[in-house]
Sequence to fold (587 residues):
Amino acid sequence: MQLTIEQVRKVAQLARLEFTEEQLESFSAQLASIISFVEQLKDVDTEGVEVLSHPHALQDALREDEVQEGLSRQAALANAPAHDGECFLVPPVLG
Amino acid sequence: MTLDACQLVVGLEVHVQLRTQTKLFCGCPTIFGAPANTQVCPVCLGLPGALPVLNRRAVELAVQTGLALNCAIPARTKWDRKNYFYPDLPKGYQISQFDLPICGPGWLEFPDPDAPEHTLRVRLVRAHLEEDAGKSMHDEKSGRGDSRIDLNRAGTPLLEIVTEPDLRSPQAAKAFLTELRLLLTYLDVSDCNMQEGSLRVDANVNLHIDTPSGKVATPIVEVKNLNSFRAVERALAYEQQRQWQQWQRDGKQLGEVPKQTRGWDENQAVTVPQREKEESSDYRYFPDPDLVPIAIDAELIERCRACLGERPLELRLRLQQEYGLTAYDADVIVAQGRALVEYFEMVVAKGASAKRASSWLQQDVLRTLNEQNLTIEQFPIDADKLGELIAAVEKGELENSRARDVFQYYLGHPQAGLEQARAALGIVQVDDRELTELCQKLLDEHPQIVAQAKAGDLKGLGALIGAAKRRNPNVDPRKVRSICQHLIEQQG
Fold:
């Protein structure tokens, strides 16, 4: 499995990670080896096996539609880097 | 080549906020308009370690809606993460459904705006559950220009309904949405309030153009910011023109340019290109490990099916078949909601004819509801009383204009019955001898009208009826006319 620098740059951009050219190069090699490792699963014969959507056998973990107490606004905003006492503040979001 | 050679092709994505008490994955309330960031908890704030637990009611409402939309309901549905970064999305992903939506393919039938006797059918691709994002507000006034984020809405349950590109005109798109909203209102699964964002519409639109070398499709444009059904209609009509002109200029076809997103500008009545989110289509969906799949068993489906009731389309047909109403009258009554249909049926059950009941409802009742800003549930005259009143007109016991007086009296005296209203308004039946005397007196006073009538000109009788009503408001105008004619004939 080979990964191009461009593919790694794109994945990094999607995850909002900033890398130097050297890092991009070394991560390309490392990610490629991880993918190769996982690719071994392709060798397993899955003919007739139903797709697994969750490793837990459990299903239908549901709750009733009843209001539960949440956080106070003060608590909700407490760890925000910036707030005005009512809302979280972030750099301008345009249109 | 002219605009006639091009066919508008439209598919819609409709987000409907489901009527639950709490959010999709946590117990925070979903009340609109609460002070900012007062309906939040670690789950909907995306705090580390918090785990989502699915709201049972949201599943039921989604299945109910899917059944009403003729959707296939799969035995199993699951949750996926849709990854993107935006300040109103605290987790950095939205919990949504990718490959196993809760509602599969279906369809909705609705009255054809060009031929109300007929219906159009739009196929639905799917409908899936997902959580809403928060709200970002950009305050122009604040010097620093920060955006403010309110996360009250984050995590509110939405059902996203996706149609096939089956719509062919702006009017058809509006008619589809009108029927969808009416259906959702009948089901009571959403309040469908567009101003409050509980119903949001995006449109995918392009043109199919007949050219000498075959059919050509123009690039698909997604139109957002459609805040009313009228905006949908206008924006689609605008896009039809714009894409046609664009195609004449550059001849670009579907697939030759990336999909564009445009926003509808209500004031300028144009669509304008929106800034593309970088890599916006690469959401890297994957199954959400925090949530287990849901099995939808036959018992749940049957329970939801039992809640459906009659849908608007079925009701319109029944009102026509059972009561002999016209398609138009049936549509006006059904469009007002289930409560008004029930009111209509009770009025008829009390002895009113369907035709007269429908006309009283459309004129007197709906006008009063509009004027006083009431719902039919708040209307002071109950259906039995109106039915009894119209039945009295039907039997000739009460004259139509006097019945309207009683109607007005009832509005001011919700407790009053027909006897009390008659007494208060001085309504007594006029016996025939008394009426004949009155008519004779009027004829004696108006020899000119009598002479005209004898010469075959009956126009003057209207004036006599008016005079009779002034002397005794209880007289029946039809009787006055026939007695006067009879008396004139006797004079020879």
Summary: The mean pLDDT of chain B is 92. The CA atoms of residues 123 and 349 of chain B lie 38 Å apart. Residues 3-300 of chain B form one domain. DSSP finds 15 helices and 17 strands in chain B.
